[in-house]
């Protein structure tokens, strides 16, 4: 068919046009940028989007999830493991299905990760208003439940006419492939519009390659940062997730070695350097190593590379304690680069490190003292070692569970987690191979773990994926375990059961509070639960076992290698001990007025620590 100005056109529904267009948006490697679409259908997307996904077939595969939030988590984990070079779409119906994805959208937003969310929306025509599940605003007829996405996505659009897609889809892709603006996109798709036909220009469906930019630094900023580094005596590099997304691991190592600058890694940046690299001193801040925090306290210049300087990294701004210290931030996002008065270098991390190294040519600092690093690893050996005389009545700590998994892990192992005790303990204790660490700690979202493991395994099927999850997070969201069984996606879940929220229970006590409503034993319940996690996981089709002790855990980890589907290994742990070593202060406000001596003492300690915070 010929359209306006002689253009060739094709008549498609809006939903068919969307899926056809997404199927030809390519990476530089010749792959689809949107690998496929997770879908749970309801009346708001089954007729339009559902028909279009069925029609497009394997040109844009569809996978069925069990929960809108967790299938979005799987998509986000996939994008994170792919270093933002590829992503997935997720579609839901209107109302509760859409709102279930808002938490996942916030997770992607905080972590700067691409995901395309396509919730169904109300009728653009408004003929059947109010439709089933429609949220009505008494003062604004344009509002729907999907407006909840606005503060937690980087781009929001409502598709109320078919031709809106001509501008909305390219804008969505631009955001997801822009390293500075990268984040989630929500295209709220009115359900009647999904099914409307329109004559689309054939040229709209021409395959397009999306390139990830590598912005060069401004010469003036580069000169200023180089001058600041030359004037420093004891700098330290804080490597964040931007190092991994840029693919700048080799450049980071070369820069650090050329100028003898020690490196510490954030949760998002851990695994940028092999743990055995002599200049890798572990992690800084609240969940940091002793040797890293000592370096940070003494450093007169902090060089952040691809980090947001989150409060855990900075010890709530007490970790960088040198009275004359300067903060320098290499970041693609100007918003992040100038946080806390940092001297900014707005550029791609890989390019910036290369240019900065050239600007510092021949300049080398004094070699850092590696004795503290060696002492640190000796300390971690002690807390992660299996206890002597281990018996059936002795429950291991989380650190000892980490030690058992560490003894099993190989160069191809990726460990992952999101919330509870394990993220902090893993950052402190885990010895990561390159790119062997996947932590969602920007949002620290309970329930990410099982779904995230599925996404990682889909992104890198050749690697062994081990998911650490506590009983609390497992209870919140475990249903994508069934999806992994159905898809025969292998990963191993190490489920530590401490019978409650052990991490927050410890924090509650550290803040002067009584044990209350975190552990089952301290909750207002009549019957203490005896949850059979093995039976539960097995009921979804997973291979599930309970390890009696750490030796049993190691044996079951070995047995899980090579299975076609997911494995779940349950082990009882004690709840009183965290990582056992390392760490720094974290600003969690303690009540200024309290009845108990314990609470008053906690407040005094809080005020003393808060007095050390730096805001310059």
From TrEMBL:
Entry-linked SUPFAM superfamilies: DHS-like NAD/FAD-binding domain (SSF52467), Thiamin diphosphate-binding fold (THDP-binding) (SSF52518)
Claim: Transferase is one of the keywords in the record: yes
GO molecular function: 3D-(3,5/4)-trihydroxycyclohexane-1,2-dione hydrolase activity
Lineage of producing organism: Bacteria, Pseudomonadati, Pseudomonadota, Alphaproteobacteria, Rhodobacterales
Every Thiamine pyrophosphate enzyme central domain range: 222-356
Domain Thiamine pyrophosphate enzyme TPP-binding span(s) in chain numbering: 420-571
Annotated EC: 3.7.1.22
Family: Belongs to the TPP enzyme family.
Every Thiamine pyrophosphate enzyme N-terminal TPP-binding domain range: 65-134
Protein name: 3D-(3,5/4)-trihydroxycyclohexane-1,2-dione acylhydrolase (Decyclizing)
PROSITE patterns in alphabetical order: TPP_ENZYMES
Annotated keywords: Hydrolase, Thiamine pyrophosphate, Transferase
Entry keyword annotation includes Transferase: yes
Domain of life, per lineage: Bacteria
């Amino acid at each position: 068919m010929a359209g306006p100005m002689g253009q060739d056109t094709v008549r498609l529904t809006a939903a068919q046009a969307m899926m056809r267009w997404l199927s030809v948006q390519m990476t530089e490697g010749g792959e689809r940028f949107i690998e496929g679409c997770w879908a749970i259908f309801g009346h708001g997307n089954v007729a339009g989007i559902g028909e279009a996904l069925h029609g497009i077939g394997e040109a844009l595969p569809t996978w069925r999830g069990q929960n809108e939030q967790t299938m979005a988590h799987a998509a986000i984990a996939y994008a994170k493991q792919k270093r933002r070079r590829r992503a997935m779409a997720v579609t839901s119906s209107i109302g509760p299905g859409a709102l279930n994805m808002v938490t996942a959208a916030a997770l992607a937003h905080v972590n700067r990760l691409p995901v395309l969310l396509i919730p169904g929306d109300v009728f653009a025509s408004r003929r059947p208003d109010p439709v089933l599940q429609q949220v009505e605003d008494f003062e604004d007829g344009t509002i729907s439940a999907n407006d909840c996405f606005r503060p937690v996505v980087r781009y929001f659009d409502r598709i109320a006419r078919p031709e809106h897609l001509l501008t909305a889809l390219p804008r969505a892709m631009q955001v997801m492939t822009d390293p500075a603006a990268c984040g989630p996109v929500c295209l709220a798709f009115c359900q009647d519009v999904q099914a409307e036909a329109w004559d689309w220009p054939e040229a709209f469906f021409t395959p397009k390659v999306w390139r990830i930019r590598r912005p060069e630094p401004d010469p003036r900023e580069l000169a200023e940062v180089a001058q600041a580094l030359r004037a420093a005596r004891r700098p330290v590099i804080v490597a964040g997730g931007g190092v991994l997304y840029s693919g700048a691991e080799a450049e980071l190592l070369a820069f650090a070695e050329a100028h003898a600058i020690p490196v510490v890694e954030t949760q998002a940046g851990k695994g940028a350097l092999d743990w055995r690299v002599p200049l890798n001193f572990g992690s800084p801040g609240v969940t940091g190593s002793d040797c890293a925090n000592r370096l940070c306290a003494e450093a007169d210049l902090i060089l952040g590379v691809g980090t947001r300087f989150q409060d855990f990294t900075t010890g709530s701004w007490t970790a960088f304690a040198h009275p004359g210290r300067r903060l320098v931030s290499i970041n693609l996002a100007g918003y992040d680069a100038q946080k806390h008065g940092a001297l900014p270098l707005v550029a791609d991390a890989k390019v910036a490190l290369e240019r900065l190294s050239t600007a510092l040519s021949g300049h080398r600092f004094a070699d850092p003292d590696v004795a503290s690093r060696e002492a640190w690893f000796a300390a971690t050996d002690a807390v992660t070692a299996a206890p002597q005389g281990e018996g059936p009545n002795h429950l291991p700590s989380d650190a000892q569970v980490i030690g058992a998994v560490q003894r099993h892990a190989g160069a191809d192992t990726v460990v992952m987690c999101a919330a509870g005790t394990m993220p902090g303990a893993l950052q402190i204790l885990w010895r990561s191979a390159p790119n062997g660490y996947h932590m969602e700690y920007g949002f620290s979202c309970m329930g990410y773990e099982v779904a995230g493991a599925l996404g990682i395994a889909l992104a890198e099927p050749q690697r062994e994926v081990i998911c650490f999850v506590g009983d609390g997070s497992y209870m919140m969201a475990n249903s994508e375990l069934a999806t992994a069984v159905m898809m025969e996606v292998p990963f191993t879940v190490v489920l530590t059961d401490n019978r409650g929220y052990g991490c927050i229970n410890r924090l509650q006590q550290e803040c002067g509070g009584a044990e209350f409503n975190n552990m089952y034993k301290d909750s207002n319940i009549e019957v203490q639960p005896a949850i059979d996690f093995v039976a539960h996981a097995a009921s979804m089709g997973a291979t599930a076992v309970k390890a009696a002790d750490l030796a049993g855990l190691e044996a079951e980890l070995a047995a899980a290698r090579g299975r076609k589907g997911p494995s779940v290994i349950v082990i009882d742990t004690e709840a009183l001990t965290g990582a056992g070593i390392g760490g720094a202060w974290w600003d969690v406000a303690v009540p200024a007025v309290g009845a108990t001596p314990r609470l008053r003492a906690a407040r005094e300690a809080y005020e003393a620590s808060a007095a050390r915070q730096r805001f310059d």
